[in-house]
Amino acid sequence: MIDLMGVRKVYPVKGGTEVVALDNLTLHVERGSIHGIVGQSGAGKSTLIRCLTALESPTEGRIVVDGVDMTALSGARLREARRRIGMVFQAANLLDQRTAADNIGYPLRLAREKKPVIAARVEEMLELVGLSGRGSSYPSQLSGGQKQRVGIARAMADTPSVLLCDEPTSALDGESTRQILDLLRQVRDVSGVTVVVITHEMGVVREICDSVTLLRHGSVVQSGTVEEVVSDATSPLAQELVPAPHVSASEVPDGMKLLDVVFTSRPGTPTGATVLNLAASMGADVTAGTFESIGETQVGRLALSVPGYHSDQIIRQLGEHQIRAEVREA
Ligand SMILES: Nc1ncnc2c1ncn2[C@@H]1O[C@H](COP(=O)(O)OP(=O)(O)OP(=O)(O)O)[C@@H](O)[C@H]1O
Ligand SMILES: [Mg+2]
């Protein structure tokens, strides 16, 4: 659906050395999936989005969206291809002097659709985002979450095949965030649109993403379905998505050792309950733990206190059940 192949983006800097914002980036996003892009500030996330919308062209490489090579287009054909891409921003960026309905219909007016077509589509979009009856409200009369709903309705009005969301929930509180994430998933389910979400919140990835890519210095560190990336509990994304519990080895009493235990359970392998029972039967105390369910996969991280003389044997026994454990050094 979306393919980036060897994409490089270099910004010239006056009087300085150039900045390599994207470096040989190769990435595939499946049709109809929700794909998260995460990475620290400066990793290249916004540059990637600008290249996907063809607001900027890469220095090298190809970007193919829905079968169209964006890097080979210009003029009217590029404008046509851009209509297939909807954008949702952190702040909804609505026109304050226009009603919700006018904001939603805006891209259709730009595309010179006929008035009855626009009116019907606006009604459909208001219903899709749960704002039926609020079309005549102005942005100042809507909550932050409702404004973002209008933003999503506007992005979907021209039936895009791709929805690009740049930090869509960063300006919202917890409850509105959950509602907007539910809405994005519902919009995808109803329309089959492919969604790319840029976010710094791992909760967003846990909640709605089917697949995820971690960027660092403009390159892909790790990419795959969320279940794939957490199945190796030691991988960078697994550590971000299911962080280890906060315990210090110095908190453990004399003669005891702290074991860091990670396990990934899928149907047919040990579950969290089995691991806890196993730990108890070996005389290990659970000092802290985190469990996270991602699709059918459960990832757990435990800090176990065990008698020092017994630790090697416990590590071996856990290993027989595909549970990885190691001693945390003080
Ligand atoms: N127009 C520009 N000119 C020069 N350098 C730029 C330009 N835009 C971005 N950069 C540089 O490219 C790199 C990637 O920037 P980008 O904005 O894509 O990062 P980001 O991952 O979106 O970060 P953030 O999470 O802070 O938004 C940074 O080093 C940035 O300084
Ligand atoms: Mg950015």
Q: Please, what is the oligomeric state?
A: single chain
The distinct ligands, each listed once, are: adenosine-5'-triphosphate, magnesium ion
N to C succession of SSEs: EEEHEEHEHHHEHEHEEHHEHEEHE
Tell me the number of helical segments per DSSP (H or I, 4 or more residues long): 11
* Strand residue content: 25-35%
Tell me, what is the CATH class of the largest domain?
Answer: Alpha Beta
**What is the structural class?**
alpha/beta
According to CATH, the homologous superfamily of the largest domain is: P-loop containing nucleotide triphosphate hydrolases
Identify low-pLDDT runs: none
| Overall pLDDT | 91
How many E strands?
14
Spatial separation of the terminal alpha carbons: 48 Å
> For the CA atoms, what is the radius of gyration?
24 Å
Structure in words:
There is one protein chain. The mean pLDDT is 91. α5 runs parallel beside α6. The chain contains eleven helices and 14 strands. The chain has two domains: 2-237, 3-Layer(aba) Sandwich (Rossmann fold), CATH 3.40.50.300; 242-328, Alpha-Beta Plaits (2-Layer Sandwich). It is an alpha/beta fold. The chain has helices spanning 45-52, 75-82, 100-110, 115-128, 144-157, 174-191, 202-208, 226-231, 236-241, 272-281, 311-320; strands at 2-11, 19-29, 34-38, 60-65, 68-69, 85-88, 162-166, 194-198, 211-216, 219-225, 256-265, 285-294, 297-307, 324-328. The site of magnesium ion (MG) has 2 residues, from α1.
